[in-house]
Design brief:
The protein is of the alpha/beta class. It has a single domain (16-181, 188-225, 235-241), classed as Phosphoglycerate mutase-like (Rossmann fold). The protein has eight helices and seven strands, in the order αββααβαβαααβαββ. It has helices at 4-10, 50-54, 67-80, 94-103, 130-136, 138-146, 159-176, 188-195, and strands at 18-20, 39-45, 87-90, 111-113, 181-186, 215-220, 226-233. Helix 3 (67-80) runs parallel beside helix 4, helix 5 packs across helix 6 (138-146) and helix 7 (159-176) packs across helix 8.
Length: 260
């Protein structure tokens, strides 16, 4: 029987409930072939910071949660209360760590900090507003918003570099927790670089930044198939805490049909 948690999640506004099995038999998204058990991963973007609200590029800068973000972390803890979670992994940046601590509030596990989950290094963009960066680096910011695979901030990390780092890190965590349920707390562009490429070649990555404190649940099965149970879900947050950037674009769930 479907649990109340699963029913609540699959009925959410951002539910996808798609299974993607386009890879050849035996080929795994993890790069190995011996995984024949289902592993559940809850991907969470950190809560809102004052920079998020102000449209200021954060990147690798270590910015804490704002008051809204702290409240979001509280509601994440309420949502995961009583859930069978085996491990919680977080970017070491303060805003992600604080979010992960909120997730763990009613759980018997504590966050494990993983450097590979940190946000993209934004180089010279960091600390400036999106409008300031658009004036100084119009092509870079156009790529950031519309062509994420091409994004390469001056003095920072390229989209391909973070895609490689995130993919290697997430796949390792899945291999180490085969058959379990885990939470991964990371960042907007970092999560986009992994999730948006689950069913799409890197060079064709679509703009797809999930909301702050949103949850995306993906179940990985044998032969590298995956099922998106729900995506970019903020249903656990009161309406006044559901924050999304007006500058960045949201997209489709992994495995969902592309728009014509």
């Amino acid at each position: 029987m479907e649990s109340s948690w699963e029913k609540r999640c699959t009925d959410s506004t951002y539910s996808a409930c798609k299974t993607h099995t386009e890879r050849p038999p035996g080929r795994s998204v993890f790069g190995r072939r011996e995984f024949f058990v289902k592993t559940t991963v809850y991907f969470i973007r950190h809560g809102t910071t004052d920079n998020n609200v102000g449209g200021r590029f954060q990147g690798s800068s270590d910015i804490p949660l704002g008051q809204t973000g702290l409240r979001q972390a509280y509601y994440l803890g309420e949502r995961f209360a009583g859930m069978p979670v085996d491990a919680v992994y977080s970017s070491p940046l303060t805003r992600a760590r604080q979010t992960a601590e909120g997730v763990c509030r009613h759980l018997s596990v504590q966050p494990v900090l993983v450097d590979g989950l940190r946000e993209i290094d934004g180089g010279l963009l960091e600390g400036h507003t999106n409008e300031e960066n658009r004036r100084a680096y119009p092509e870079v910011m156009d790529n950031f918003r519309n062509h994420p695979a091409r994004f390469c901030p001056p003095g920072g990390e390229s989209a391909r570099q973070i895609h490689t780092r995130m993919t290697e890190t997430v796949n390792r965590l899945i291999r180490e927790n085969a058959g379990k349920s885990i939470v991964i707390v990371s960042h907007g562009f970092a999560l986009q670089s992994y999730l948006a490429c689950l069913d799409t070649p890197f060079d064709e990555m679509e703009p797809n930044i999930v909301g702050n404190a949103s949850i995306s649940c993906i179940v990985y099965g044998e032969n590298g198939d995956f099922e998106t149970k729900f995506y970019d879900d903020q249903s656990h947050l009161p309406e006044d805490l559901r924050f999304r950037s007006a500058f960045l674009k949201q997209g489709r769930a992994p495995g969902a049909k592309r728009a014509e």
